Amino acid sequence: MFERVLIVCTGNICRSPFAQVMLQELLPAVEVRSAGIATESSGLQGFPAEKSMIEVAKDYHLDLSANAARQLTRQDCHWSDVIFIMHPDQLNGVAKISGSARGKTFLLGQWDQGTIEDPFGKSLSEYQTAARQINAACQAWLKKI
């Protein structure tokens, strides 16, 4: 069983905060954090979760109001027992920050959903789709960990 889980997406304002709060609810004995591989370069450091994702999260009884977007660091990678990413391209982003993290980085949706596309700036239905995929992916990982 993992004790420290890190969820990574691009900006840390949509997918990873949602997955973080969901996994924390599903695994209360596990510490779950989230970060983005491009939070700093996108100027999103400290931003709250995106409003549409906050609204969609309410449908799952999840509260994203505490999220403050943060950049993935080497320390985050070393801290974690496992890292979940949303898109295969993010593996290279994680590896650039911490090459040793490559072996413990997995696609969150690898058991069923595959890639979980970024809904940022898209319609509400895209946020709902991402949330459904994240929910299914988290449920699938529960059976594995």
Unreliable segments (pLDDT under 50, ≥5 consecutive)?
Answer: none
Distance between the termini: 6 Å
Q: Which word captures the global form?
A: globular
Structural class: alpha/beta
Mean pLDDT across residues: 96
How many beta-strand elements? 4
Strand order of the largest sheet: 2-1-3-4
Brief summary of the model shown:
The protein is α/β, with parallel strands linked by helices and 145 residues long. The chain is 38% helix and 13% strand.
SSE order and pairing:
Layout: E1 4-9, H1 15-26, E2 31-36, H2 51-58, H3 74-79, E3 82-85, H4 90-97, E4 105-107, H5 124-144
Parallel strand pairs: 1-2, 1-3, 3-4
Task: List descriptors.
145 residues; alpha/beta; 5 helices; 4 strands
Description of the structure:
This protein has 145 residues and is an alpha/beta fold. Helices cover 38% and strands 13% of the residues. The chain has five helices and four strands. It has helices at residues 15-26, 51-58, 74-79, 90-97, 124-144, and strands at residues 4-9, 31-36, 82-85, 105-107. It has a four-stranded parallel β-sheet with strand order 2-1-3-4, sandwiched between helices. β3 (82-85), α4 and β4 form a beta-alpha-beta unit. α1 packs parallel to α5.
